[in-house]
Automatic annotation (TrEMBL):
It comes from Glutamicibacter soli. This is o-succinylbenzoate synthase. Pfam families: Enolase_like_N (PF18374), MR_MLE_C (PF13378). The keyword Secreted does not apply. Converts 2-succinyl-6-hydroxy-2,4-cyclohexadiene-1-carboxylate (SHCHC) to 2-succinylbenzoate (OSB).
Amino acid sequence: MNFPLPALEEILAHSHVVQLPMQVKFRGVTQREALLIEGPAGWGEFSAFLEYGPQEASRWLAAAIEAAYQPFPQPLRTSIPVNATLPAVPVGEVGRVLERYDAPHTIKIKVAEQGQSVDEDLARVAETRRLYPQAALRVDANMGWDIPTAVAALTRLSDFDLQYAEQPVPGITGLAEVRARLRSARIDLKIAADEAVRKHTDPLEVSRLGAADLMIIKAQPLGGIQTVLDIAAQAELDVVVSSALDTSVGLAQAAALASALPELPYACGLSTGTLFADDVTDEPLLATAGYLPVRRVKPQPHKLAKLHPGQEREAWWHLRVRDCYAQLLEN
Ligand SMILES: O=C(O)CCC(=O)C1=CC=C[C@@H](O)[C@@H]1C(=O)O
Ligand SMILES: [Mg+2]
């Protein structure tokens, strides 16, 4: 943490647990839970995925505390170009899901979902290309392939003129290997590192080893705006800001991060508010024609009341905050 940690009891006393229903299942999630913290600077979001342990989740808590207690950095831009995100839906649902986004110029398509085939991925990407011939397309495999499958799948998918492929296989050396094999087969497709950045003890190792062409950076999973701005400044690769499937409160922090980066060469993955069926405010942070406004978000009391998941879930989150706070004190 690059600022003093507020007292644990103060954080808990100003926190609200919410559970948001999703429109479309995303990474297996249909109900997204978050603990929101109201602080002197505004609201922060702590929404580490439920299965994450205290070590990993503590970085998300640091980000939430930063958003609640520190001002956002000076913005260099007032709106952020964003991509639409298409979950790994069956081909017949592609049009219906993408219709929810207002005139997207860039679309990220999930591929390599467990239980699905490369043919299904190909059909999903082909349908997206058919419906949006002018859009920039990228895919995200979330480490779902092994190296030979990734090389074969990406060779076929590269026919659709992709901007890049995000984390086709696990690990840093895995990414480097896929990238090298594609290059030697003269397949011109950029590789982006996501999990190899946010789940690694050293987020800059990908860059140092030249294992990818791009780095995905996320405000919550990497510990907050200042930490991520430092990482981006040291990285020798282009960076792409993406969401952590946050409510509008977390999206506001991610947009503030994107607004403060000196260079923003790629659309950011911050249109995920569209995947939710409800949000913490009547004015959720949603994109218009592929641009997201940069602004703070204040949850509304009637939304906090409506989206409260009950005492048991609240107690679970409070315990989690205690565990993660203890980690932050140790680090
Ligand atoms: O980048 C985007 O378009 C949307 C965000 C997104 O894809 C993700 C959000 C949250 C969890 C991750 O599994 C996932 C990702 O892998 O980038
Ligand atoms: Mg990803």
